[in-house]
Structures are given as C-alpha cells and as structure tokens.
Known about the structure:
The protein has a single domain (18-225), classed as 3-Layer(aba) Sandwich (Rossmann fold). Helices cover 58% and strands 12% of the residues. The protein has helices spanning 2-17, 32-40, 52-56, 63-69, 71-91, 105-118, 124-140, 155-165, 175-190, 210-225, and strands at residues 20-26, 45-48, 98-102, 147-152, 201-205. The chain has a 5-stranded parallel β-sheet with strand order 2-3-1-4-5, sandwiched between helices. The longest helix has 21 residues, at 71-91.
Amino acid sequence: RSSTSVNHRKLVRNGEGKKSVIWLEGNIASGKTTCLEYFSKTSDIEVLTEPVSKWRNVQGCNPLGLMYQDPSRWGLTLQTYVQLTMLDRHVLPMASPIRMMERSIYSAKYIFVENLYKSGKMPEVDFAVLSEWFEWIVKNIAIPVDLIVYLQTSPQTCYERLKQRCREEEKVIPLEYIESIHNLYEDWLIHHKSFEVPAPVLVMPADHDLKKMLHQFEENREKILMANC
Ligand code: DCP
C-alpha cells in the first residue's frame, strides 16, 4: 500500500513539474481572441492575451495609432514597446500547468518588424537596432514554447473581420497590408522559408464561422493540451 502511494506521489510530482506553453499565432483579426476565450474556460490553463491596450496607451501616448499614421516615424517606437511587453509576458512565472499566449516576441520580430522593413517603411538603422535587441534577448533569456497553433486564414477574411470590428487605429489598414502579413506568416510557419520555427506547428483553418471554429477547437483540444507529452 505504501509503495503504491509513493508511486502515486511521484507521478503527481512529475505531473506538476510538466508545464507546457502554447503560442497562438495568426494574422490581424484571424480570430485569436475567440480561441483564447474558448480555452480560458478550461481549468488548468492560463491564457495571456496580447497587451494591445498597453500599445494604445503608454503613459497617455498611443504608439499603435501613431505607427499606423506614420510607420516610418513611429514603427521603431511601437515595435520597441511591443518587444518589451511581449518579453514581460514570456518571463512571467506560470500560474497553471498550461499556458496559452497570444502571439510571441518571435512573430513581433519575424512578421511585424520584418514587414515594416521589407515594405520600406522602417529605416535600416531602426531595423538594425531592433534586430540587435531581439538577438540579445533570445540568446540570453529563456523563452519556452512547446507548440505553435497557427490560425490560418485568407487575407480577405481578415480584412472583412477587421472592417466589422472597426478599431479606430486600424481604419487605415488596406488589404495589401493584411496580405503582406499573411505571406510572412506562411513563409515562416508553413513553407519554413524564412526564419527558425521554435516548436512544432498545428495548423488550424480559420476562415469558418464561429460555430465551426468552436467545433474545431473542441476537436483539437487534446492535441493542443497535450502539447508537451
Ligand atoms: N500589431 C503590430 N505589431 C505587432 C503586433 C501587433 O503592429 N508586433 C498590431 C496589429 C493590430 C494590433 O496590433 O492592429 C492588434 O493585433 P491583432 O489584431 O492581431 O490582435 P487582436 O486581439 O485584435 O486579434 P484577433 O482579432 O485575432 O483576436
């Protein structure tokens, strides 16, 4: 009897030690918030949303709005702050065995900074400074990840959802911007053509309506939650 309970205790202890981190990635308005809300109802999961409210208000300033108004001038400002706030999320001690977080410091750099630079809207010196910061961070600070869930959408779907939600700062976003973000995501997570992919990728088609999306989350629940087993 005593050996059974020791084994049981060991198992529990191992179980407790096993933590897994999932990043939820996808284009602007791809439905990440809905997915996070769905999984936040599961016990033992901690959900961390993107710190967008901070990007819209840092000590009374709105770097997100400024960036959309004048990317060449304010891209570095926003992306420096995004890098800081995402890092803050990554190093937060885990409060549950499973963490699901919206985007990552990797997509901030590989998708959004890259897009600003590639489209000629970020000066070379700004890109160089951000890149050196990023390289230093990922070399010196542990950023755990076990699974990347990619909500794969068509740019057109995201564009329609973006128009519907009507976030003030985003009114200036054209379809071409969404298309560039889409292409960078596909090159990174699907074609493995651009940058290092730090964990296995689970691709979830995400053009569907809410009902079908919820059904899909349910179908993939085990795969997602067993990320590190
Ligand atoms: N953004 C940015 N640079 C980053 C990350 C995000 O410029 N490194 C911008 C894109 C959006 C805004 O921040 O205008 C918020 O990102 P999302 O639209 O992806 O966040 P949501 O919560 O709105 O996503 P979803 O609609 O998928 O729930």
